[in-house]
Each structure stands twice: as structure tokens, then as C-alpha cells.
Amino acid sequence: MNETKTATIIIKLFRMKIVSLNIEQLLYSALTYIKTRSFVLVYCLPLTTLLIQSCFQNITAQGSATTTTIKQKSISKTGQQKEKVVEIGYYDRYETLPKFHLDTASEEDFLLQPSRSTFKKEKLHMEKGFFSIPIENRQTRFKAYDENNGEDGLNGNEYLGYDNSLKLYAIQQNSVSESLGFAEMNLIHSGTGYHYRIISLGDWSVSLPVPSINNMYMVYWQNPEYESKTLSIAVLKINTKAPYRNLLKEYTSCFTDNGLSIEEIRWKDNNHFFIKAYTSSLDGQGDEFRTYSYFNAKINNK
Fold first, then answer.
1. Which H, E and C letters describe 49-109, residue by residue?
2. pLDDT at 296 over 60
3. CA 26 to chain centre
4. pTM of the model
């Protein structure tokens, strides 16, 4: 890992999102990010510290307007945000848990299942490139993603909706580094402020999770990227009676090298779901053409 790449990663952390920008928290975020990508901490630590100090000096010099924005984006008390960010969905964790497999199904089987979208999008208040949502009974601001505003607009957040039954906002955090796009999925509890960050299994974000019929589980997926043929499907267990830190836990997964991508998943009940998958090709006019396949998955052997 070279210093340029390390610097890019730290700058990415600085420019992203909803982390409050004090030295202790940014160092924690930087080291956590580096560790999750299997980098060598001994090599990265001196440069990381230097970059963080530089970022802090720049923040101080920017004046009161920036400070106000940072305060509005932070979570409650000093040090509280680090405690309320829960990272879930690491590949290594899923490797230790039971796996499920895919069985062939028909289009008719898939269409018999109801299509559910529990994350509903309402119109948000936008002001000067930021949107606001109520968290812990106060408005919290997020820099909005804007593909029409150059690279700066690409480093922002997309609001994907609110699940009223689970009290969870879905926000995708996007960033650009060295002309490459990255994204992560965050579910944020409106009442407690807990951030459940679903770790990407590639460069881009995982899909918007789909809760099961009675909110016992939620399934999400990551389609193949670049030259990879790996389709990743993962299930989280929902426990609304547990402490909020443990609301979502890794439960089971399926990683298959079939080269397929997923368009939609529909739950049949709390144990079965059906998958609409596809492969893409180009027709004579150069337009995308999709060939579909359908699958059934059972996550518990009961």
C-alpha cells in the first residue's frame, strides 16, 4: 500500500458523511476503515495521524459557518457518535455462520409473492446542498449527493426512505476517489440515533435491505463488480427486544459464482424468499437486454 492510496482513504473518511470531526473520532474511523481493508496498521499509522492533524487545522481555519454545519451533523454528546455506530456484515463474520443455497424457481412462483417496499420516501427539506431528517427529536443535516455538481456533488448522501415499523432511515453514502466511486449503506434509528453501517462486499454499496413479512429478518445483496462473477446474498436477524446496539445481527448468507445479478427479492414468509436475477447483453442497437432467471431460497432448515 503506497502513501498516495493511504492519503486518499483518509481524505475519503474526512469528506464523507456523518462523522463528527474531532481528532479522537476521526482517528478511530480511519484506523477502523484501514483495518477492515486488511491494511498494515504499523505502516499507515504515522501518515494517518499527520493527515488527521492537517484536516483538523483546515477545519479550524474555515470559520464559523463550517463549524455550524459540523455541529448540526454530529450525534448528540461528544464521543457519543463512535459508540452509536455499529458495523455489520463483514464477510469473515458470515463465513462462520450457516449458509443457504438457491433452488431453481419459475417466474410464476416469483409473481405469486407480494412486492414489498417498506422504506418509503417522503419529500425532505433541502437547503444549500443539505437535507435534514429528525433523529433523536432534532433535525440532523446530511450533505446531499448531486450528480450534476461535479466531483464535490458525488461525495454526498442519498436518502432512500424510512421504514416506519422499524424506525429506520436508509441512507447511502457515496464518495469518489481517484475517479473511482465508492458507497456504503447506513440504516439509522430515528429514536436512538444508532447507525447500523452495512459493510460493502465490494466497492459499491449493498442493496437496500428488504425486511421479511413480520420483520424477523432482512435480506440484502451485492451484485458482481468488474470482472468478478460472485453474487452475494446476506440475511440479518432483526431483534427489536434486544439492546439497540444488537438490533441487527448477521444470520446467514450465500455467495455464488454464477455471474448473475439480482433485480428484486420478494419474501414468501419469514423463512422463504424468491429471487429475480438476470444476465445482461447488448442488442443490435447497443441497448441493454436482460435474460431472467428465478430462484427460491430457504434460510432455515425447518
1. HHHHHHHHHHHHHCCHHHHHHHHHHCCCCCCHHHHHEEEECCHHHHHCCCECCEEECCHHH
2. yes
3. 19
4. 0.71
Q: What is the rounded CA–CA span in Å between residue 259 and residue 231?
A: 7
- Report which residue type is found at 218: M
C-alpha cell belonging to residue 282: 447488448
Cβ-proximal residues to 205 (8 Å cutoff; 6+ apart), any chain: 172, 173, 174, 183, 184, 185, 198
Task: For the chain, report the end-to-end CA distance as a whole number of angstroms.
Answer: 47
Give the C-alpha separation, 302 to 299, whole Å: 9
- At 7 the pLDDT is 45
State residue 75's pLDDT score.
34
- Between residues 24 and 217, the one the model is more confident about: 217
Residue 69, pLDDT above cutoff 60: no
CA pair distance 102, 229, nearest whole angstrom: 16
| Residue given cell 452475494 in the structure block | 232
CA dihedral 93, 97, 101, 107 (to 10 degrees): -70
